[in-house]
Amino acid sequence: MKAFVFPGQGAQYVGMGKDLYETNDLAKQLFEKANEILGYRITDIMFDGTDEELRQTKVTQPAVFLHSVIRALCLGEDFKPAMTAGHSLGEFSALVAAGALSFEDGLRLVYARAMAMQKACEAAPSTMAAIIGIADETVIEICAEVSKEGNGVVVPANFNCPGQLVISGNVEAINEACVRIKEAGAKRALPLNVGGAFHSPLMQPAKVELQQAIEKTEVKTPTCPIYQNVDGLPHTDPAEIKANLIAQLTSSVRWTECVRHMISDGADDFTECGPGKALQGMITRISKGVTIQGIQ
Questions:
Q1: How far is CA 24 from CA 30, 74, 76, in A?
Q2: I want to staple 8 with a disulfide (CB 3.0 to 4.6 A). Which of 14, 60, 88, 287 is the partner?
């Protein structure tokens, strides 16, 4: 069975989507529609901007979403997923590709999410760190210990694949957790150059803003199950999909569980649709027994 998966923030690069814009009429129409909806030419930044411009959360998220979704829509009859999933931001791409959200509504929600997250990041010094080569359970325990001691909040944010997860929280708490995680035997505990503590309780202000936008948006029954980040399980009910989208901002991304459940439900052929190859690497580490390729 064929599964399509969609990347999140961090997959962006200058020049993304330019070939598609220049060679496909549908892609050009959709990119121009996006420029109109956003009120500025995001295509100028995507195609010819600087890395710094593209790294701004308010630009990065809609840019990755647009590249991913437009690439999927341009596949036409070749886009026939039995299931879809997306990593963090990529969940919105998966929902649009599977018909649960319209292109326009999906873009508006992603932009609202990006702006709300940027505000939350500016409100409190926070960050994330990549943890490599140690059991998830150990990281969970250490994060809980550090948070209890009053140095701030630190929680597991992204369960990407076995032996690789990301923690998120206040800067001081992240630094303390990294020290203890290294002492516990991790190969690496590396602070990331990100704007804030995504998928942590520090995103609560953004969650409140996004909830209002999601509740006003029509979500339809998708053409196939969407495996959502908050529980790793398949969903087709619009009310459940909405609730999970709202919860996602302050909840962990359970990507390993998403992929394992997709495989147990019959997925054996994965296609990453959008910029980068991050999900291909994660899926390979989760299971050696599936086919994985990318379409950019």
A1: 10, 8, 12
A2: 88
* Predicted TM-score (pTM) above 0.70: yes
Catalytic residue among 68, 88, 93, 147: 88
Q: Is 88 a catalytic residue?
A: yes
The predicted structure's pLDDT at residue 123: 84
**H/E element, 240:** helix 238-248
Known catalytic membership, residue 261:
no
Beta strand spans in the chain (E): 2-6, 83-86, 126-132, 154-161, 164-170, 188-191, 226-227, 234-235, 269-273, 291-295
Catalytically annotated residue among 199, 200, 251, 261: 199
Residue in 165, 20, 169 with CA at minimum distance from that of residue 87: 165
Task: Give the separation between CA 14 and CA 93, rounded to whole angstroms.
Answer: 20
pLDDT above 70 as % of the chain: 100
